[in-house]
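The methods section describes the discrete structure representation at length, but only in general terms. Since the whole study asks how a given chain folds, the encoding of that fold should be made plain. An entry of this sort, consisting of the sequence and the corresponding backbone structure tokens, reads as follows:

. . .
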Amino acid sequence: MSVSTSDGAGRASVADPGHRSTRSWVGVLLVLLLLTEQSALGFSLIAPALPQVAAEFPGSQVVWVMTAFTLSGAVASPIIGKLADRYGKKRMLVVTAAVGAVGALVSATAPTFEILVAGRFLSGIAFACMALGYTLIRDTFPVRMQSISISIANTGVGAVGVGSLLVAGVLIDHLGMRSVFWFAFGFCAVGALLAAIVVPETPIRSRSRIDWLGAALVTASMFVVMFGLSRGKVWGLFDSRTLTFVAIGLVGFAVWVWWERRTPEPLIRLDLFANPALRWTVIAGGIAYGATTLLATLMPMLLQAPASTSYGFGLSATAMAGWLLPGQLAIVASGFVVGATARSLGFRNHLTLGAVAIAVAALVLATVPTVPAVMVLVWVVFGLGCMIYAAVPNLTLLTLPETERAVGSSFVGVAQTMAGTFISTIGFTVLAHHVLAAGPTGVVYEESGFQAAFLVAAAAAAIGAVVSLAVPRGLQQRGAQR
């Protein structure tokens, strides 16, 4: 059975934050931010280098540079979360970041494409840093700082998104493709070192054994499903190959569920998801998160589409970053909004309002506006809607037992990633039916394709908003009392 460590009186023991000043806790938060943004950095820093990767390794399937990262993060996160609950979240945070740094180093020095992809697979393990970071905040930070700190840790992706695009452009132009992997190595290695020195460890522990069979089953099932969905963007959502992989993965999940219900010490307590608060938070948050994933992919494509089309702006990567900057800063601001209004508004309302804002932004983009000011403004609305990034983890942590926080939060993160991949696959399947031209510089889509894909995102966000209303009001009130 899972229990926490206790003091001599048998009471649950938690970190005593009283000996640290607010300035000290801010320093700890900044260190955690270096690591919680590893997943965002793994995408936005590396994506601009894909054309150069293709040029250096002719004939390679460059999509695997991103797919390996996502797959690794999905399959490793629950296992790392369970280990963190048992052996310590700080310890596993440092180990995970160190493995991510090794992965970046392997990619930076890779003599072949296969080794580069292997390095990316190792780097993807750092995906778990986000859940470990905000569960550490929940376990160790003063109550007065928890909500806003968790919110900031989950919405810092906005600043990282723009900053990494600019950094990637400068590095690639002046130092070559491999420099982005060296930068990722330094970023992750420094974060691991500072975390080892500065971040406090939580004394909360789970005493349960590791369910290695359950870990193997869920890992294999997630890998097969994620592989099928990721390839679905190329094969098509309803292609027999895509459906076969997804079906095999779902069968694997069914076997895993059967085993988890049978074993006395499961990897993940599935009864936790029977709790309406957690169940509806995961479903609503996952669907809305899927909409943000699709929009974050479509918007750069739209802005960089040739000006010769009726809708494209033909922007360079640097110019695009400038256009997106206000919206990305709005993502950061949304974290402060959630933290500052936790008592007065409640996290459930943040999830609902955020999903509505994302739906509105997607609906406006479905008109494919050609006025620059409109594009900038609608991305600000989208950025404010990304308060869901802060609302979901706060709601999740309110429902999870303290000894299940890391593994539970990791599993929620994986569910969001899978939802994002699924909804993106639907959007790109729709977009693929509206190809205008294809050439050596890439694919140009018809305006109607973007309209349809943005409508997919709008529908997903709207569904997420409606489902969020099922989150029990009592949980919202608990969040308001924090």
Q: What stands out?
A: The domain at 269-482 is CATH 1.20.1250.20 (Growth Hormone; Chain: A;).
